[in-house]
């Protein structure tokens, strides 16, 4: 049985570094044997169908293929359609009443324990807030990610050391859910 997945590439096409053109990303995915491939934006979002049912194996194969093709490392997370929909459905913030730039999901490569963030004084960042989810963190940043002091604090090494993490705004989260339903 085939499954729809989204590949979330971290840190590509930002500031002219680690350029991965989306047509070439689609080609790499096709060469890996995947089908129903589509990309969204230029920031490393792709959906595809695969017979392989191991997200970590899919991510590792994609990372290897990208390194071979472009000569630099690209961290990748692969998540299936069901997971993406569940993350969207479990959002603890009123997503429908917020602008896409105000709400973000940071996806992690594995479950994250709340103890990583115990030293954050959440009240000092209000009205910004975060909540942990299933291998993700929801971030409400009413002035956007670029102005978020909480996002900076969450990204400090003591909070993310040893993790692969990549963030998507709510518009992209919703679009990936839509694209993987097909």
UniProtKB/TrEMBL annotation:
InterPro entries to which the protein is assigned, alphabetical: DUF1697 (IPR012545)
* Gene3D superfamilies to which the protein is assigned, alphabetical: SP0830-like domains
* PANTHER family with a match to the protein in the record: BLL4334 PROTEIN, DUF1697 DOMAIN-CONTAINING PROTEIN
State the name under which the record lists this protein.
DUF1697 domain-containing protein
């Amino acid at each position: 049985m085939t499954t729809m997945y989204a590949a979330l590439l971290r840190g590509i096409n930002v500031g002219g570094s680690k350029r991965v053109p989306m047509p070439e990303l689609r080609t790499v995915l096709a060469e890996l044997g995947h089908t129903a491939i589509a990309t969204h934006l230029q920031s490393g979002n792709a959906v595809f169908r695969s017979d392989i049912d191991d997200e970590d194996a899919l991510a590792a194969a994609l990372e290897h293929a990208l390194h071979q093709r472009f000569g630099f490392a690209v961290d990748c997370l692969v998540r299936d359609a069901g997971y993406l929909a569940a993350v969207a459905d479990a959002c603890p913030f009123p997503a429908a009443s917020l602008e896409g730039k105000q709400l973000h999901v940071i996806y992690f490569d594995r479950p994250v324990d709340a103890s990583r963030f115990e030293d954050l004084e959440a009240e000092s960042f209000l009205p910004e807030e975060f909540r942990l989810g299933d291998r993700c963190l929801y971030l409400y940043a009413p002035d956007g990610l670029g102005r978020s002091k909480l996002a900076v604090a969450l990204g400090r090494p003591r909070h993310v050391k040893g993790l692969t993490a990549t963030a998507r705004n709510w518009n992209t989260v919703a679009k990936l859910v839509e694209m993987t339903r097909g």
